[in-house]
Amino acid sequence: MIGNAPFFVVGLLFLAGLTAIFMEKNLIKIAIAIGIISSAVNLFLVALGYRAGGTVPIHFLAGKETLMVLPTPQAMTLTAIVISLATTAFLLSLIMLVYRHYGTLDVDEIRRLRG
Amino acid sequence: MNWNDHLPALLLMIPLFGAFVAPLVCLLGKTTRNALLVGLSFVTLLVSLLLWRNVLIGGIAIYVMGGESFNLTLPSGMALPIRIVMEVDAFSAFMVVCGSVASFAGALFSTNYMEKFTGLGRFVSLYFLLTLGMLGMMITGDFFNFFIFIEIASIASFGLVAFWRDRPEAIEASLKYTLVSQVGSMIFLIAAGALYGKYNALNMAAIGSLLQFGVMEKIALVFIIGTLAMKCGSFPMHMWLPDAYAEAPSGVSCLLVAVSQASLYGLMRVCFSLYGVNLGGSFIPWMIISMGLASMFFGVTMAVVQHEIKRLIGYHSVSQVGYMLLGLGVGLLVLDDARGMAEYGFTAMKGGIFHIFNYTMYKALLFLAAGAIYYATGKRDLNEMGGLARRMPFTTAMFVIAAAAISGLPPFNGFVSKLLIYESVFAVHPALTVVALVTSVLTLASFVKVFQTAFLGPEKTVFTGVREVPSGMLFGMGVLTLAVLGATLFPSWTLSNLVEPAAKALVDQAGYIGAVMGGGL
Amino acid sequence: MFGTVYTGFGYWDVTAWIVFFAIAAGLTLWLRAQGRDDYKEGTDQDEIYWSGNVVPDDGAEISVPASSAYWGFRKAMAPFYKVLTGMHTGIATDIVGYYVLVVAFMAVFILL
Amino acid sequence: MNPLSVVVRTGCDLFAWFMVVFGVNVLVHGYMTPGGGFQGGAIIATFTAFLLVAYGGRKMHGWANEKIFDLFEEVGLLAFFVLAFMGFPITFFYNYLVKPLSAGGVIPPAGTTALMSIAVGLEVTGALSMIILTMFRGIRMFETVPMKEEFGHDR
Question: Which subunits have 3 or more CB–CB pairs within 8 Å of chain C?
Fold first, then answer.
């Protein structure tokens, strides 16, 4: 049961982020909600990577242990972090431009393209 | 060293090199920049054609990034492949050819279309990154790598949609696309992680060979299908698509069409090659068919009432994607039923795959023609246009060809693929064909409206100064017109060389898995 | 090359269509060439008829805008379009909402 | 953004350089520790953020042109591409420098991975610094300078 605790945290974080997207009206808060969602996913990947009894997959630091975990989830997490950094930076720049053009950050008022 | 073995890597390497070197080269001036954009796109097209020929002759092409040998998928007795594996079967090769033709035409068009604007170094860089992401999605055999290429393509397309950054609508469209696409990618990543946690592998063939249909697989499957259906713009999740397609510069809209087809490719790859016969009953196929029907009908009804030309064409994208979802969904429905597959399922899949080719060509051509009108007149609202046929004869001719092809008027290629779909899906239920036919009629109606209001009618005095667009744009449109006319005049050659191998590769799950894992299932 | 495409229930042959088109075009052109011999150029017969009024020089005054096309269709389908355009609110979070709803719907139904 | 007080600026003077040293340390040991190009580059880029916060944007833009960071980015990207391309007779991205651990030397067990992580570090340093500076300039533009107008499309 305690081994599954990270996954409950992941679920809670993910739902929190998803709820924030629908409940919040401020675009910056929505950007933060997307950040929370990607943190939840990264946590999910890291939690998946651990196998019982494994050690760090680094040759110099593992010591005498020969049973290492496969480093693929760590690599996946790093890549996902880089991607979410890029999109967060892009999203914030877009929000700056939206505020410049529309004069508001309320997501309900940014609807010139509809119908 | 045989260059033919390295074609999958070259296909990714050339746009990557273009993206990296573009900001430097663009300091050297306009001619160098245009030469880079067009030249590297053309080389990519050549490489994709060579790759397609190789795959047709020699079967599935495997490429291991960073391996000791290009086809060493299982080094030193490992049970599962750990390196990044590119796997190109006939379906991937077919998609790669479609995508790189669209990329080349868009590049040729952009040389003249974008010359008035600043920041073109970044534009060229992002354009190559978008091409890279699209081609990578089509040829990768690795699940996480697919996610990375989706993200490369998405981030490049966010940037390109918002390229006219002093236009409020462009920023708004990009913001909507970014929001929905980020949530979608994160959900896709959860699915990839879930499959990794279950099978310790990320390679699609490896997962496919081990897959048992359980709870985790079901959840992963719906997450993947939801995300990729959103990315290719099926009905209830299509709202970002007309916005983004309408607000992007036209050369980019042309490429975005091909990028949405790459998402459709991923959807079909997961359904056919990863899950295959253990798809757990007929719920998923019927879901895909009903998404296709809804996209077709509601997309086209929304398109009829639009009066902004690129937005109208964007809504037609939604409705055309429905045809492919319908054709391939019917193929998926009868996947484990050999008799149904032989009678109508395979024809429906051929129709769906042929429609991918046709759709990419004529929809890209329509976007380019709309961009040409916009370039020449500066207007994007149909209410303000009229009588342009006298001023822009070449654009008019190419627009008519594309509009006739998308409406399914014989003898154009759109008619052939739609006929293949009509005459096979009615075996499942006649209502499917009825909806497809009504959609086709409404498509014709809306394009009659566009043609009549933009090109026909009395000449307006505001348009007396309008000229035909420059030659680069005409050549860009001409490439796609040639593709449309080629598929029109030689339908049986196209079907037997491009489409049938692709459809066969798609249903051959054991072949796809065996090429990586060595041996059968 | 110009072969026939068989669909399993019918077939499509592009050459047959082109031959038919050529015959039809020839027939139409022949009919058109018959013409009327009492037509004279440069007289009132040449003028555009516009309800007896003088035709304006600028075409913008007599063209029908695209928004007016298919007026009857849109009028007849007004309730349908009201629902459909009501769906396309253009709010960014609504788009995300539709996506999440579809995924949740599929997840519930596949797990049942 | 105005410069902060003299205490903050002196603190920045004293300690900001250590971020660069630490970042380079993380970067060059990327092949054998949990670090690497992105992490090292991100740490180095905090140097730019420190200077920006402590000294304000006007001075920062006077010190560092965005072209410098563009150059960093280009050099990193092209070095990465060339390193990947050099493996070509065998495969793209093939690690042609790698030797067994017993062979000795500076980068035997890593080969091109270590060099690639340095290239990625350069790229990330340039890109993140440029993101910070450009976003900052966006805020400034919003207050003072009107945005440069594009032309050629309707507005």
Answer: A, B
